[in-house]
Amino acid sequence: MGNEVQIHGISLEKPQISGGEHLIPKPEDYEIQGEEATALALGFKHKRPVLLSGHTGTGKNAAVRWFANKMGLPVYVVSLAEGTTTDQLIGMPIPVSGNGGIAVEWRDGALPTALRNGGIIVLDEINAADERTLMRLHDFLATEYRLNIYEKPDGAEYIEPHPAFMLVATANPADSGQYAGARILNEATLDRFIVAEVSYLGLENPEKEAAVVARAGKIKHSRATRIVEVFNSVRRAAGLGEPVLETIKNDDGTETQKVKQQPLSMFVTASTRRAIDIALLSTDISIMSAVEIAFTNKINGEDRPVVHKLFLDAFAGDDESQPVVEEVANA
Q: Is residue 167 a contact partner of residue 49, using CB atoms and an 8 Å limit?
């Protein structure tokens, strides 16, 4: 069937939408990991909201854009950081001037727009939302996507969801201590969602992340691999990975696993986008200058020299005074 889309072995029908075509994401260089793709496909198929949980820069929003592009769905994003009000989510009355003077007109927020047109609404950083916004969302999710806009000054309006409507929320881990304002969502809210954990691609598949960094940063795969290796060391130091092990052959022919590299102890975000920035900037300036302005200048002073040393060791022998000018990767 021409409208059938396969997402990780799940068959979906590509839907018709009623507006917002300009918000359908363009194709981008994204390596899907698996669990998030399955969760998004199942959420769309069974009309269930999806929660993507993971550290900043793991690709939560990129996964939504990838899925939306495959399905031909517009994406409406609402950041729920502290201070966001339900006006941005639901809508608000605004004064308008006309022939009869000033009148009040209702303007839909992102949620009613997505419900009417079809598409994906992304509630970014849902666990940083204030309690009032979370309660409004909880009421909405409890009605299977039927929205009561009781805020309208001329009387409540009920909106039934478009068949192509989908809700996705993202959350940074509240228990890591890295994200100010992030709260642990209560069980009643979590029960509404299909939940997928999204980790850094490099920890799951270093070769794939190196390929992405090489393509986006326009450098050789071998160089991108070294950047990813350093980033994985930093990620393990932040408690996001296991120690690196190696297998030792004993004299009696048996094998023993030994810790080759113990995790350090750091408080640093090593996202794929930062790795790409280092790669891209290193085509014009020295690698260590690129590391400084794309990465280490953004982290705390205590961890900065440790990360700097990791990159110095990884790129020992490179001419720091010269930019990296290499054949563009085909990986």
A: yes
Structure-block tokens of residue 38: 């399955």
Structural tokens at position 244: 């690196």
- Assigned token pair, 101: 């003077």
At what angle are helices 304-314 and 287-294 packed, to 10 degrees? 150
Q: Burial level of 242, CB count in 10 A (0-12/13-18/19+)? A: exposed
**Chain segment 95-120, per-residue pLDDT in tens:** 888 777 788 889 999 999 999 999 99
Considering the chain, what is the average pLDDT of its residues? 86
Query: Which one-letter amino acid corresponds to residue 317?
Result: G
Residue 269 CB partners (closer than 8 Å, separation 6+)? 55, 56, 57, 178, 238, 299
Q: What are phi and psi of 161, to 5 degrees?
A: -70, 140
4-199 is classed in which CATH architecture? Answer: 3-Layer(aba) Sandwich (3.40)
Q: How far is Cα 258 from Cα 263, in angstroms, rounded to an integer?
A: 14
Domain map (residue ranges) of the chain = 4-199, 202-314
Specify whether the CB–CB gap between 63 and 75 falls below 8 A. Answer: no
Rg (CA), the chain: 23
Quote the CA–CA distance of 227 and 216 in Å, as a whole number. 13
Name the 3-class secondary structure at 180.
coil
Reference 328, options 180, 224, 244; nearest CA is 224
Section 126-150 average pLDDT: 89
Q: Say which range, 112-116, 128-132, 174-178, has the weakest mean pLDDT.
A: 174-178
For residue 11, list its beta bridge partners.
6
Evaluate if pTM is beyond 0.70. yes
